[in-house]
Amino acid sequence: TQNDIDQSKTTESSTSTSIADLEAQLSQLNVDLESARRTAQTADEDYLVAANDLKNATSDAETAQQAVTDAAADVATARQDLSGVVAQTYEEGNTGPLDALTPFLTSQSVGDLSDATVAMEYIGADVDFRMQTVETCLAAASTAQTQADQKVTDKQTAATQAEEARSTAETAATNAQTAVTNARTQRSNLITQLAEQRNTTVALETQRQDQIEADRKAREETAARSAAKAKADAAASASTTPTAEPTASAEPSAEPTGSAE
Q: pLDDT for 108-123, tens place per residue?
C-alpha cells in the first residue's frame, strides 16, 4: 500500500540521516584520535628523557658517594699517621726525627721533654695540615653528595610525573581508538540496514555511502580553502591601502605690526 511505501521511505530517510550524522561524528573522532596519539607519543618521549635524566643523576650520586667514602678513608689514614707521629716522637726523644730540629734548639736545652714537645709540634704540623686538607675534602665531598642526592630526588619526582602523564595519554589514546572503532561498527550496521531497506547489497551501499562521504569532505575542503583565500586577500588589501598623509599645520600668523611712533 501507499502507506507502506511512505513508511519505508521514511525509515530509509531516517537511516540515511543517521549515517550522515555518524559520518560527521566519525570524522571528528578520527581527529581526536590523531591528537591523542600525538599527545601519547610526546608523553612517551618526555618520559624517556626523564628516565634517562634519573639514570644519570643516580650515577652521579653513586660517584659522589664513592668520593665521600674515599675522603673518609683519607681522613682516617691522616688521623692514624698523626697518632703514629706523636707516639714515635715521644719514644725517640732526641734521635731520629728530633735530629732535624737541632738548628732550632738553643745551646741550653730545657731537656728531653722540651725537645720532644717541640719535635711533636714541628713534625706533627705537616701531618696535621694534611689531616685538615683531607677533612676539607671530606666536607666538600659530603656537600656534593647531598646535592647529588637531592638531584636524584628531583629527577625521581619528574620521572614519576612523566610516567603518570604517559599513562594518562596512553589511556586517552586507547579510549579515542575505542570510540572510533565503535563508531565504525555502528556505521557498518546502519549501512547494512539501509541496504536491506533499499533492497541492495551491503557492498554496493557501502560504496555509495563512501562516495557520499568523500563528496562531503571535498565540499568542506573547498569551502575551507575559499575562506582562507578570502581572509588572505582581505589582509593583503588592507596592507596595501595607502594611509592618508597628515594635514600640514597652518602657517604661523604674521607678527603684529609695531605701533606707529
A: 444 444 454 555 555 5
Q: Which amino acid is at 243?
A: T
Copy the grid coordinates of residue 197: 531497506
What is the rounded radius of gyration, in angstroms, for the C-alpha atoms of the chain?
46
Residue 210 and residue 31: Cα distance in Å, rounded? Answer: 18
Its sign, for the CA torsion 50, 56, 61, 64, is negative
Q: Using CA atoms, how far apart are residues 234 and 224, in angstroms rounded to an integer?
A: 15
Residue 162 to residue 169: CA distance in whole angstroms: 10
- Cell readout for 205 is 551501499
- The C-alpha cell at 165 is 602523564
Backbone angles phi, psi at 22, to 5 degrees: -65, -35
What's the pTM?
0.56
| Residue recorded with cell 586577500 | 233
Residues 182-214 pLDDT 10s? 998 988 888 888 888 888 888 988 888 888 888
**Residue 106 corresponds to which cell in the numbers above?**
738553643
The total of other beta-carbon atoms located within 10 Å of residue 70's CB is 14
| Grid cell locating 214 | 568523500
**Of residues 190, 197, 228, 242, the one with CA closest to residue 212:** 190
